[in-house]
Design a protein that fits this description.
The chain has 374 residues and is an alpha/beta fold. It folds into 2 domains: 186 residues, 3-Layer(aba) Sandwich (Rossmann fold), CATH 3.40.50; 179 residues, Rossmann fold. The strands form 2 sheets. The protein has a 7-stranded parallel sheet with strand order 3-2-1-4-5-6-7, sandwiched between helices. A 6-stranded parallel sheet has the order 10-9-8-11-12-13, sandwiched between helices. Helix 9 links the parallel strand 9 and strand 10.
């Protein structure tokens, strides 16, 4: 690898999301590497991580695209990104990928950060085109879990063996609470005796949050509370379900919070009930890192790779097992704390930022070699 490799991380937008957070943290860590000069390019400006990226001190490009099929903007995009030797894509954006292919001296790597999704026809056509670009014009591939790698191989008709697995790196210092647990529980009107089941997510239907709402109904325990941190298009539907089940006093919709760790610490158990579209599940790993006993479903995609069942967390097959696991944890809080302590040690050893950055540096080196010997 050259002494200072200029790496451009390419994304569509900087809204709040798992991919955006993972890329932000990766770039933050890469700024410590004297052999790399990381930069960021966004198809469109705006969003929480757009703002945070500009605070990092690295170059941030606003490509100013009105939409994803603005072909007339291709020359301007090519001119903006052609100076970078390595283009690292974190989502399949056909327009931006085409611009990269038109940069003759660039090497390209792609990281897949998604699971199984039933795409509409238009998106399937876009993915088919992206697959052609990936197969013939990209030099390195990774998935942020083995599940993500398998999904990408199937989605883009690529051999699975071409994908490395590079787990997201987390900055565990960001999980230090800014407020006391007593202050947070007081804000939420939680008493010390109440058992708090929690989740944190961008509220969309595929996140499966209704699984938790109906679990609270099945528990039929007035001492249980469900704390939902996050916002999104599914919030109104979830609140309607909550009201229909008569759970308004037991389910707390806290909305989007700038420092989620403050609210994670108030939880006695955590569950991210997402179905197969989840590749990594940052929120679940962060909860585990904070020592919270965490539950995922057997259809939870890449999240299964974080959990040693019964040792670092729980994998449940269906709604009945979810309710029974929550019932047992509420009845034996010491057991839950022991599982949480083991989970914290496990994920902190496995998902450090330096380890992820080193793996991507290796991917860049391989891509340079592949490009030079294509």
């Amino acid at each position: 690898m050259t002494q200072t490799l200029r790496v451009l991380h390419v994304m569509w937008k900087g809204e709040i999301g798992g991919t955006e957070r993972a890329v932000y943290l990766l770039v933050k860590e890469q700024l410590r590497d004297t052999g790399l000069v990381p930069s960021l390019a966004f198809g469109q400006s705006g969003g929480f991580y757009w703002d945070r990226a500009r605070e990092l001190g690295c170059q941030v490009l606003d490509l100013g695209l009105p939409h994803g099929h603005a072909l007339h903007c291709l020359p301007a995009v090519v001119a903006a990104i052609r100076e970078f030797k390595m283009h690292h894509f974190h989502s399949a954006e056909p327009l931006l990928m085409t611009a990269s292919v038109l940069c003759p001296n660039a090497r390209r790597v792609y990281t897949h950060r998604g699971g199984v999704i039933d795409y509409p026809l238009r998106k399937r056509i876009q993915n088919a085109y992206a697959g052609v670009l990936l197969r013939f014009s990209f030099h390195g591939f990774s998935g942020n879990t083995a599940h993500g790698a398998r999904c990408a191989a199937k989605l883009f008709a690529l051999p699975r063996e071409r994908f490395k697995v590079t787990y997201n790196g987390l900055d565990f210092d960001l999980l230090l609470p800014h407020r006391s647990i007593d202050a947070v529980r007081a804000e939420l009107a939680l008493t010390p005796s109440q058992y708090v089941i929690g989740t944190a997510a961008n509220l969309r239907p595929l996140k499966g949050i209704e699984r938790l709402v109906t679990a609270v109904k099945s528990l039929a325990d007035p001492n249980v509370r469900l704390l939902v941190v996050g916002d999104g298009i599914d919030r109104s539907r979830l609140q309607l379900i909550t009201d229909q089940l008569g759970l308004r006093s037991q389910v707390i919709f806290a909305g989007r919070r700038s420092h989620v760790a403050d609210y994670l610490q108030a939880m006695n158990a955590f569950c991210l009930p997402t179905m197969g579209m989840e590749s990594f599940g940052n929120a679940a790993v962060e909860a585990m890192a904070m020592g919270i006993p965490t539950i995922v479903f057997a259809d939870g995609g890449g999240m299964l790779e974080h959990v040693l069942p019964g040792e670092t967390g729980f994998v449940v097959a269906d709604q009945f097992e979810l309710v029974e696991t929550l019932r047992r944890l509420a009845a034996n809080r010491d057991w839950g704390r022991r599982i949480g302590e083991q989970a914290s040690q496990w994920v902190r050893n496995r998902y450090g930022l330096p380890k992820a950055a080193a793996a991507y540096r290796s991917l860049y080196e391989e891509a340079e070699w592949n490009g030079d010997h294509a």
